[in-house]
Each structure stands twice: as structure tokens, then as C-alpha cells.
Design brief:
Glycosyltransferase; about 25% helix
């Protein structure tokens, strides 16, 4: 009876399909599909974003709140769904017609993937699945109920005969359509419920029609991350798995997975939901090849096993471990990611230099295999000007250049694997990967530094540096390769309006490069994933002011397109900040959420090197979000911030920020990034240490206070 048994009840009703407005009860394959019809155009809309104009609103990951608008022929219909309990949902619509409402129709179609018959029973549309029943009801009687063999047949009838047609009236059919118009029902509500008795399902659906309480608003950055993740989370029927797609809009087959994009989806989902984060990690890992690498892209139509992508998954898995405290995250990924790392060194270092080049191996039958373009795909920056001077060598099956960004990420991968191995008690592997990381950093520092231009750049394996540079020139900060003098030079490049600085940053070709004017994909445009990695690098290098400036500008870029228009773009113009100024960008792409993640991270972030970092600043309330110690909420202002776990305030920080924060029941610890006062909102500790020396708390209203100077560590122990 049950079609899918691995989805928890809390997520069972959700927008799982390629029609975002459609509510699906996944365990039964039951669907409730809104369909619009405009007489002016004689056209229907099933709310498919590749064809229909939609504005995607708020969306809780568990589907407990979903809001969206559709525009057909100038008539806008706003929909909202809520869930009073896991087995029921309530939907509503409100229309703003641009044609006579009598001629614009809202139809609710109930149908099942298995073809079970829908029947009208006591004013409700009911489908039976063995002993289980699903009922759909509305707060107003439909103008008529019609029956059809399929959604295609329903839409074809509208588009052929219009709305003034009675021949398909029915009490039972594979698809029952409850029809309403905007003259008689400008707004309306409907509800569906699942139960093990027909009468009970109908009663529970009618009870679910009661208006819900208003939803609690989140911090705008948190809400944006959540909405982008939730809208892009779908059901992959071919592989029987949930995953967060890069976008609902691209048509690359029944499913499509870019390795790095999938790990970014895991990172973003993990802010709120570790189960979904794990599911996305599992999808990313599932396309490991027998050779050792992760396939660059895998779809229902093609799989690029001959090439990979820069190995960022270890950074993301380590960050998820920091956020969740779950050692099992590392156990899930370590062996497969370690194999992938060794593949890179074995297959992409043809001269044994310790530095790697992009390539395309002689395996598989993928598009672009054995070509320079295919090799470029390994950087993820397919048409970047940094590749213009690279020549493909069919003998080594690699490009002629050492790619700076790829080498930095591989060095970082070794470092993250070493950290994982240490936690997992695999000491020999920890030492192996730590040594690889250190050697690789030294080679980047010496071989990929162009001392003439005082910048890191791609380099011919047997020659000089390539002319074009990109923000990957800052990736040595991310992997810890840049020394103090090199870092200082990089800061000057970052601030130079002729290259990387400007109102909208960071361009993926310098502003003085001829490629910048092309404004096509990686030639000049801004990419959220690159901004995020550079931001992490700046924070690692101790460049807090530059990191905050980049986060602020990235947030402004995101808000320019998100607020009002709800565009979360794959890439953006570095001249105007517009996303949709040209056709080579997707308007709702998963990694756009990295921009608000940076903004949020300037207040509260799980940093790969410093653990939980908290910094007072803008007035905001972030959370609840995942932490190792419970659902965490951080309220910030210019004066300080407070931290609550599971709704209970635990500590107050006044003055500067803190990092390396631990909030266990028996141990609270933090390091002062600047002079600050920490006030603990709980019982007095049995032992208080500052840099290992015993100290006494100051009794204050509501708790105990401790004053710290920059760099001091506070450790509090409790029974």
C-alpha cells in the first residue's frame, strides 16, 4: 500500500514534485494539484516553473508553511498551505483578476500516482489506498466537479472547450477536478487529510479548514536560506530518494546531481535540518566511481565519470560536524572522500610535481570527454578566462596549467581529512593527510605566487603564469598557504577598483580584463559560491574587517534581487548587481543561499577552524538553528548578544565577540576575540578557569559575570 516508507510523517505532505504548487503525500503517492485557466488566453497553468510565471514565497523545510503566487494572463493568484498536523494540510487562494473573474478558474485536482479512483463522498473527494483514505474538501461548494483520465485530459478540455462545458461532470474518475472561479470565489480554502477510515478522513479534512495562527517570521537571512533549500528539495522517483536539487527549473532529465552543488545543499540544509543535510551528503557520495573520484555531474541522461569537481565536500562535512556535534557525519563520508583525494593525486599530477592540473580520464562515454572543455569542467568554472591559455594534452589527458583554485581546494581537502581522521581515531591517516596538506600549501606559496604582479595565479607546468586571474587568487587564504606578506598584497588587490573592488563584488574576471566585458557566465559575473569561499578565507586569515565588508556587499547583492522579486540567482552582474540581465543564469539556484549564510555568519557561524563564533553587531534574531547542544537562537545588537538553547537564555555577551564556544550541560567554554563580559544565566559553576587559572565570578542580576581580555579562554564546569 505504501509507495515510499522512508519519509518521516512530519515531511510526508510537501511540495515534492516538479510542480512546486502541488502538494504530495509521498507515502501514498497522492497529489493535490492546483490548475489555473484563463479564458482570455484559452490557456491553463499547472504551475510548472519552466513554463509558468511563479513567485516562490516562504517555505518551511517540513512543508508546514508554503506560500507562492502564480501569474496567468495578468491575473495573480496567491496560494498558502499550512499543516495542522503531519497527516493533514490546509490550503487557500486569493485572486487579483485582470479579466472578468467568471472567466478565470481555479481548479483543485486530486489524483494518485498508482491510478486509484477518486470518488465524491458527502461533498468530499476521496481516494482509497487499501485501508487508508485521503479526503479533499473545500470551504465552498465547487461550481462543478469533473472527472478525467489524467491532468493532461483536464487541461486539454479547458483549452479546447473553455469553462462553459458540462460533459465531463463525474462522481468518480482517476482525476477529480473541483472547479471554482474568481467571480464567485475570489478567495477560498481547501484541506486534505489522511486517515484509516473514510468518514474520519472527511471529518479531519473539514476540521483542518480552520484558519491557522500566523506564522512566526524568521530573520530575513535565515528565512531566505530556509526558503531556497525547501523549494529546491524534491523527490527523485527514479532513485527513490529525497534530495535538494540545484534548481527546479533546469531540464536535465528526471534528476541531476553536481557533486559540489549537492554538498553545498547539505551545508545549507544543515542550518535547520540535519536529516536533510545527511540525505544530501548521501546523494553526493552516491556518485563515487570505482576509479575513486566523484563524478562531476550525474543525471538520468549522462554521467561525467571521466572528470570530477574540486573536492570541497570534506570542508562541508567538517562544518556540519562542527554544527551538529555528530561524529557519525564524519563516519558517513571519510572513506569515500579519502579515496577521492588519493585519486586526484594519482590521476591529475602527470609529472609528479605535487601540484595538480584539470583533466578528463579515459573512462565512460560522457559529453565533452577527452576535450579541453571537459577538462575545464573540473574547476567548476567552465568558461573562465583563467583557462584561455591552457592547452589540452591528449597524452596526459590534462590541461597544461596548474589550476590555482583546484590546488588550493585539494590542499584544504587534505587538511579537513586530517581533522576528520583525528576525530575518528585514525592516527596514521591523520598524519598522512596533514603532511600532504602542509606540502601542498608550501608548493602553492612558492610555485603559484607571481612575484611580478604580487598575486597568486594559474601557471603553465613548464612555463610562466597565465595573464587572467579570478577570485581564486584569494583561495590561498582559504587553505592557509599565503604568508603574511602575500596576504598583505592580496588585500591591496581586493581593494583595487581596477580589478576586484566595486559596488558589486566579486567579479570572476578582473574589471580590467577584456573577458569582464563579455558578462557571460564565468567571464566577469559574480558567483555566490566563490564569494563564500573567499569570505571563509578572509576570516581564516584574521581579516575580519575585509570579511565583513565582503559579507555586507554580498548581502546587498542578494537583497537587491530577492526582496520583492524572490530571485535567488546562480550568478549576478558585477556592473549592475542584476541577476536576470542576461539569459545564462538560473533565477532560483541553491547556492544563492550562501550569500545570506555569509550575512548570518557575521553574527553566528560554525567556523571550520574556530568552532562556534559569535559576534555582536546588527540588530537581529537568528534561529532557531541546529547546534550540538539543542536548537540555538542568537539575539544580537551593537552592545552585545544573547544565546538561548531550546528557548531558554543561557548566556549574554557584552562588548566583543567570542569563538571556540562550547555550551554543553557540564561544560561551558569560550575564547574572547576581543574584550568582553560573559554573563551566565544558570547556576554557579563548580569550577571556573581563565586560561587554566581559577577565577571567581561576579554576582550580577540573573547570573554570574566574567570579564575577559582579548585572547583569554573561559572554562566553566558544572556537576
Amino acid at each position: 500500500m505504501l509507495r515510499h516508507i522512508t519519509i518521516p510523517p512530519e515531511r510526508a505532505w510537501n511540495s515534492w514534485s516538479d510542480r512546486p504548487g502541488e502538494m504530495v503525500f509521498l507515502p501514498l503517492g497522492l497529489r493535490v494539484t492546483p490548475i489555473l485557466y484563463s479564458s482570455r488566453l484559452r490557456q491553463t497553468a499547472r504551475m510548472e516553473p519552466r513554463r509558468d510565471a511563479m513567485r516562490l514565497g516562504r517555505h518551511a523545510i517540513d512543508g508546514s508553511l508554503i506560500e507562492w503566487e502564480a501569474d496567468l494572463a495578468g491575473t495573480v493568484v496567491a496560494f498558502s498551505t499550512t499543516k495542522p498536523d503531519p497527516f493533514a494540510f490546509r490550503g487557500s487562494w486569493s485572486g487579483r483578476p485582470s479579466e472578468w473573474g467568471l472567466r478565470f478558474w481555479v481548479t483543485l485536482a486530486i489524483h494518485a500516482e498508482g491510478g486509484e479512483t477518486a470518488r465524491m463522498v458527502d461533498g468530499a473527494a476521496v481516494i482509497r489506498f487499501g485501508d487508508r483514505h485521503v479526503a479533499l474538501v473545500a470551504d465552498q461548494a465547487p461550481v462543478q466537479v469533473t472527472g478525467h483520465e489524467s491532468l493532461d485530459a483536464l487541461c486539454a478540455e479547458y483549452e479546447t472547450h473553455g469553462y462553459f462545458h458540462r460533459d465531463s461532470r463525474a462522481e468518480a474518475a482517476p482525476v477529480l477536478a473541483l472547479r471554482f472561479n474568481l467571480e464567485m470565489m475570489r478567495s477560498g480554502a481547501y484541506a486534505a487529510a489522511v486517515a484509516d477510515d473514510e468518514a474520519l478522513a472527511i471529518a479531519q479534512a473539514r476540521a483542518a479548514l480552520a484558519p491557522p495562527a500566523p506564522a512566526t517570521a524568521l530573520d530575513p537571512a535565515c528565512e531566505a536560506i530556509r526558503d531556497i533549500v525547501a523549494w529546491n528539495t524534491v523527490w527523485d522517483g527514479a532513485n527513490a530518494r529525497p534530495y535538494t536539487a540545484v534548481t527546479r527549473i533546469w531540464n536535465l532529465g528526471d534528476w541531476a546531481v553536481w557533486h559540489n552543488d549537492q554538498t553545498y545543499a547539505a551545508l545549507l540544509a544543515g542550518v535547520f535540518d540535519m536529516q536533510l543535510a545527511r540525505e544530501n551528503l548521501a546523494v553526493a557520495l552516491s556518485h563515487a566511481t570505482p576509479q575513486g573520484n566523484f563524478a562531476c555531474i550525474a543525471t538520468s541522461r549522462d554521467t561525467w565519470v571521466d572528470r570530477s569537481q574540486p573536492p570541497l565536500g570534506s570542508l562541508i562535512a567538517w562544518t556540519l560536524y562542527q554544527r551538529s556535534g555528530e561524529r557519525s557525519v564524519l563516519e558517513q563520508v571519510f572513506d569515500t572522500m579519502a579515496r577521492n583525494h588519493r585519486w586526484w593525486r594519482r590521476m591529475r599530477d602527470p609529472e609528479g610535481t605535487g601540484l595538480v592540473s584539470c583533466g578528463t580520464s579515459d573512462v565512460g562515454e560522457a559529453l565533452y570527454k577527452g576535450t579541453a572543455f571537459g577538462a575545464r569542467n573540473e574547476t567548476g568554472m567552465d568558461n573562465s578566462a583563467t583557462h584561455d591559455e591552457a592547452v589540452y594534452d591528449p597524452e596526459t589527458r590534462t590541461l597544461s596549467t596548474w589550476d590555482l583554485g583546484l590546488n588550493c581546494v585539494l590542499a584544504l581537502d587534505a587538511e579537513m581529512l586530517a581533522r576528520m581522521a583525528e576525530v575518528l581515531g585514525r592516527r596514521e591517516e591523520a598524519a598522512e593527510f596533514a603532511a600532504l596538506a602542509e606540502r601542498h600549501r608550501a608548493l602553492i606559496r612558492s610555485e603559484l605566487w607571481d612575484d611580478g604582479r604580487k598575486i597568486f595565479a594559474n601557471r603553465q607546468r613548464r612555463g610562466g603564469f597565465v595573464r587572467s586571474v579570478s577570485p581564486t587568487s584569494f583561495y590561498p587564504l582559504l587553505c592557509g598557504a599565503a604568508d603574511a606578506a602575500q596576504t598583505a598584497h592580496l588585500m591591496r588587490h581586493l581593494a583595487d577598483p581596477a580589478t576586484f573592488a566595486g559596488d558589486w563584488v566579486l567579479p570572476n574576471a578582473t574589471r580590467d580584463d577584456p573577458a569582464f566585458a563579455e558578462n557571460v557566465y564565468w567571464r566577469g559575473r559574480i558567483w555566490p559560491n566563490v564569494n563564500y569561499l573567499v569570505w571563509l578565507g578572509l576570516r581564516r586569515a584574521g581579516r575580519a574587517a575585509e570579511a565583513k565588508a565582503l559579507a555586507d556587499r554580498s548581502a546587498a547583492l542578494f537583497r537587491k534581487n530577492w526582496e520583492g522579486r524572490r530571485i535567488a540567482a546562480e550568478n549576478y552582474s558585477a556592473v549592475t548587481g542584476e541577476a536576470m540581465d542576461q539569459g545564462d543564469t538560473d533565477p532560483f539556484y541553491i547556492w544563492a543561499a550562501l550569500l545570506p549564510l555569509m550575512e548570518m555568519g557575521e553574527t553566528a557561524d560554525f567556523d571550520p577552524w574556530r568552532g562556534l563564533v559569535l559576534q555582536p553587531g546588527a540588530q537581529r534574531r537568528i534561529g532557531p538553528m541546529v547546534s550540538p547542544w539543542g536548537a540555538m537562537t542568537v539575539a544580537s545588537s551593537e552592545q552585545g548578544l544573547s544565546v538561548a538553547l531550546d528557548g531558554r537564555e543561557l548566556l549574554l555577551v557584552e562588548g566583543g565577540g567570542i569563538d571556540s564556544v562550547i555550551l554543553r550541560g557540564d561544560h561551558v567554554s569560550a575564547r574572547a576575540a576581543a574584550p568582553c563580559r560573559i554573563t551566565l544565566r544558570r547556576e554557579a559553576p563548580v569550577l571556573a578557569l581563565c586560561d587554566g587559572a581559577a577565577i571567581r565570578a561576579q554576582a550580577v542580576a540573573g547570573g554570574q559575570a566574567f570579564d575577559l581580555t582579548e585572547g583569554q579562554r573561559l572554562d566553566l564546569w558544572f556537576r
